[in-house]
Amino acid sequence: MYSCRLLALTLFLFTLSYQFLVIKSDEALIQNLCHKTPEPVLCADCLHLDPGSKDADGRGVALITVRCAESDAEQVYNFTFNLWQKTPKSDVALYNTLDTCSIQFLVAHDSFRGATVALEKGVLNWRGAAMDQLTSQVSPYLNRCLELFKKQPQLPLPNTILTGY
Questions:
Q1: How does pLDDT run across 146-161, given as a tens digit for each residue?
Q2: Which of 31, 38, 48 is nearest to 5 (CA)?
């Protein structure tokens, strides 16, 4: 499971976005698209946050979801960093795990830039380029934190790290 559910949603939307590459989005299309995702409410909330979503084509919708996921990753980073700062150094396992997690989330957040650029510039294979960036550069960093907590089941896994909000 991704620690940022919006990343999973973004990847899923990429697979569906071929349906309306040149067709403009509207409320019915947004609802139809979002109901096909594992997180329909999260999907709709993300798309409704951007006023341009109703006029967006497939690339525009993909860009909106990448920006939502990037924002989510930033929030999880901030949460984890603040939690790390508040954790006593005497709790070595939790302190070190949160330190590593905050670094991983920061790198993941920064790695969204490649996907954003591919979508903004409309590179020749924008879907493939953005998808590759998300799966090879973002996802592994997000998952490393969860792997650390799995290796140390005695540590409490904060829900915000698990769900992304």
A1: 889 889 888 888 877 7
A2: 38
